[in-house]
Amino acid sequence: MAPRDANWIDGLRGIASFMVVCGHLCTSFVPWLHQPAGSAEMPPHLFQLPFFRLAVGGRSAVALFFLVTGYVNSIGPIGKSRAGNHDAAFNGIARSALARSGRLILPTMTATLVTWFMANVNAYHMTKHIDAQWIRQGWHRQEPTLWEAFTSLFRAQTETWTIGWNEYDGTQWTLHLFLEGAMLVYATMLATILVRPKARFVVYAALYFYFWQLGKNITVGAIKGLNIVTGMFVAELHNHYKDAATSVLPAPIPALMILCGMFMAGYPQDSEKNARWSHVMSNIMHGLTNEKTDIRRYWDHLGAATVLLGIFFSRNARRVLTSPVFNFLGRVSFPVYLLHNTFMKTVLTWMIYLPSAMNPPKNEKGEQQDLQRGSTTHMLIAIAIFYYILYRTAALWVKHVDPICANIVNAATKWAYGEPQQKENRPILGNGSAEKDVLPS
Fold first, then answer.
1. Sequence-separated (6 or more) residues with CB below 8 Å from residue 233
2. CA distances to 266, 283, 302, 404 from 36, in Å
3. How confident is the model at residue 199 (pLDDT cuts 50, 70, 90)?
4. Residue 436 pLDDT > 60, yes or no?
């Protein structure tokens, strides 16, 4: 795998990617963990308690991705603006805005091609008959003709970026929002490059309040806008404090911020009234938002944003996130995001349900029933192997697929700029600098 400098924001992205996979596994096999308790009278399970329930908190990880997107895409233009290098800032925004679509779309199209191929060689056949509802709803039929197969592929490739849905991989629904979020960053930077930092803070505040009240009946404001704007705000703080950021606050305060953020990010996805702590949180947020707002996304945002700020001001947290393990998780996070659903519908399903599939259960009428899972030990071993295969494949993706996508994007942008073509063999996510793209993994 190509070398890449360690940095704390990359490590944070790796954690978010791992949380998404954990969240989808729990949604598939133990969906009751999304509740704070089985009922108001029942005691909670360990992983239903605050902090522990982050192991199933994939929703807060999505908020982290948007925060990181706002941060990394604005940090360069803000730095050039503060230095008075406005021409370089405008040039950087123009180049990034042109290349961003390719950097996000090409790997996504490749992942869609993979899951389309798996569906049309009937690799998802077993998925249709399992009792894990989340995986089962991702089943896609084998198209009866080549024409229908290629038509469905074209539809999936385009609808991912038009209506936000991919019939072969539903987890790609966030990707068009990430692209829109990046363009929101570029538009904001373009409008504020020439203003003073204090004026830019006013713009952030205005955008934040706008997206806060946008939550009625939809979640785009909370999912995209609030996190993107907060990410730009943290990038502004980075350029203001620079290396002194970890010395601004007394040591206990960043740690308390991280703990408070983790508590808020653990707001349950379902049945918040089953526990007093989540019921209180529900009442508080209902008083701060519009009617019919999905308050879960607001707590996801506030929790993830507070964690990000705590890490930003914490030297120890940054040191942990730059360790080799987290650096690796960050490097492979985008292909992990793109591939994990396909692997859950194939490798993981095969391992967990194969014994039952060899002797499928039937009712009195001879009709096939849902396949039965293996034992708990069987499932834990299967999940461990699944994680190894997923991350090993993601590492190979970064080594072999990302450079191809990067070369295509570079060639296209150089053609657009009228620059001479020169082959560059580097990963799609850059060389680890502070300004590299951090994509949703």
1. 201, 204, 208
2. 9, 15, 19, 45
3. very high
4. no
Number of residues in the chain: 441
Cα–Cα distances (Å) from 426 to 338, 402, 408, 415, in that order, read: 20, 8, 11, 18
Q: How many CB atoms lie within 10 A of CB 160?
A: 23
- Residue 423's pLDDT band, with cuts at 50, 70 and 90, is low
- How far is 37 from 43, CA to CA, in rounded Å? 6
Beta-carbon contacts of residue 136 (< 8 Å; ≥ 6 apart): 127, 128, 130
Q: For residues 108 and 151, give the distance between their C-alpha atoms in angstroms, rounded to a whole number.
A: 18
Q: Which amino acid is at 417?
A: Y
More confident call, 58 vs 193: 193
pLDDT, position 254: 96
Q: What are phi and psi of 221, to 5 degrees?
A: -60, -45
At position 228, the amino acid (one-letter code) is I
Which residues, in sequence order, are CB contacts of 193 under 8 Å at separation 6+?
77, 80, 81, 86, 89, 90, 93
Q: What are phi and psi of 362, to 5 degrees?
A: -135, 155
Residue appearing with tokens 């009937």:
122
- Of the given ranges (6-10, 12-16, 77-81, 186-190), which has the lowest mean pLDDT? 6-10
Distance CA 338, CA 333 (A): 9
Token pair for residue 405? 């996508």
Question: Cβ(207)–Cβ(187) under 8 Å?
Answer: no
Tally DSSP H helices, then E strands, for the chain. Answer: 17, 0
Contact 411, 421 (CB under 8 A): yes
C-alpha–C-alpha distance, residues 23 and 33, integer Å: 10
Query: Do 112 and 168 touch, CB atoms closer than 8 A?
Result: yes
* CB-CB contact of 163 with 157 (8 Å): no
H-run or E-run covering 58: helix 58-82
CB-based contacts of 27: which residues, under 8 Å, 6+ apart?
Answer: 34, 56, 58, 134
pLDDT tens-digit series, residues 215-256:
765 666 678 899 999 999 999 999 999 989 999 999 899 999
Note the pLDDT tens digit of each residue in 125-171.
Answer: 999 999 999 999 999 999 999 999 999 999 999 999 998 899 999 99
In the numeric block, which tokens belong to residue 347? 């490798």
Q: Which residue bears the tokens 């592929």?
A: 153
Given its phi and psi angles, is residue 407 left (phi above 0), alpha (psi -120 to 50 degrees) or beta? alpha
DSSP SS3 for 36: coil
